[in-house]
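Hi U.,

Before I forget, here's the chain from the pilot set. I'm dumping it here mostly so it's searchable later in email.
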Amino acid sequence: MVSNTPLLGTGGIIFMSLYFLSLIVIGLLGRAARKDDSMSDFYLAGRRMSLFILFLTLYATQYSGVTMIGYAGKAYRDGYRFLVSVSFMMAVIGAYLLYAPKLYRLSRKKKFITTGDYFTHRYDNAPLKLITSLIFIFALGSYILTNLKAVGYIVESSTGGVIPFSWGVIAMSLIMVIYETLGGMRSVAWTDAIQGVLLLLGCIFIFTVVEYQYGGLWLVSTKIKEMHPEFWKPPDLEQKRLWLSTLMIVFCGIPLYPHAIQRIYSAKDEKTLARSFIIMVFMPLFTTLFMVIIGIVGAAQFPGLDRGESERVVLILLSDISNHIAGIGMLLVLFLCAAVAAIMSTVDSALLSISSFFTQDIYRPIRPNSHQAQLTRMGKIVSWLVMGLMTYLAMVLPQTIWRLVEIKLDLLSQAAPALFLGLHCKKLKSGAVLAGLVAGICITVLIMTAHLIGNIFPAKPWGFHAGVWGLFVNFTTIGAVTIFQRKEKVDTSLTFRILL
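Structure:
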């Protein structure tokens, strides 16, 4: 039976409250440290981020509430097969290495603020920039939404329901939007450094305690074999296709997170950026792997949870452990701080990125004569409006965290061909990229919404995500239009020569 015992006592709540207040203080310090009111200073911390800060902010941003809550819930439902997610997160670093060094050099030369600035420089196509900006804003909004849902679960479980889900979401949203608008990227990166350390320590702590409390992996595996024999079955062909599909949307989606790209822009130099990614390669072993194993332990200890309850399996395990191990209170506070820190580091980054997109890519072209301070002020207003909307949606939408992640990546990955090919194929034209992007989005949305118009398609045709089908159409369209454009150019040139 799942316990409703609060995970935190009075002392733990006071400690966490002081931690949250300290983040606002860091926001004030970030504001005091600003060099000027320019967008480069506010959104990119003056492009002077050191190795220590850059690594921790990348780490804290990539591993979020989805990792701490959603991954464990997915492992609870899927078992050992979800260990494949470790390879997914390692693949993300491989994707960064395909484009990050070249994009970084270009961003320093051209003074990019957002991903949209790259698309403007590379393609000079207003519809293409607008569509990609809207995709990025949608993805960032979904990212905020998934993490606000996770923080609501944590606050509710930590207090035994005394603070309900909705009030937890509102309180944490308010804290984040305050320190984000005070100091911009500088405050966000400094808080990320603290949150990244807490996240790593929290993952190691809960893995160690769960292993100790429940008898280690051998005992858990024996119990799982009896209770869930399906967890031990090798994946069939359909499951393998789904793995390949997930790998593709993760590879093409997560590295395109605009807030991660802004961190690439913010690096002090290219060597600092490269060293950060080298360290990041090893982080899935200490984060994703640990949380997946914890989800499997939860399946052995608390079988029968429905889909919604399984999203809380980490918190359920912590509640059970607190009833059996005396004196573990402060360690529980550490993990809960880590979980909340992971969420906050993601939300504040996504919020800052949405603000920069709206200001730089939408508002500034409308008001080209606006001065830097006015643009920065507009970005702060956008942050408050977006956070208010996301807070409301987090309280009313019923989807699980993992499903929201899939929807976001399906759409975000459609911008991958424009970025990857654009950096490496100098002759690629904007018309081909725009045609591929529109075609890919249309196919993706059609498959995702098919159930609303009579289930004309399954949710994942032949085991592949809607985003993968969209990518196939996207790349194919780019190739077809490019071939047509070259053929037309050759025909035109030939006709011109004949006429001469």
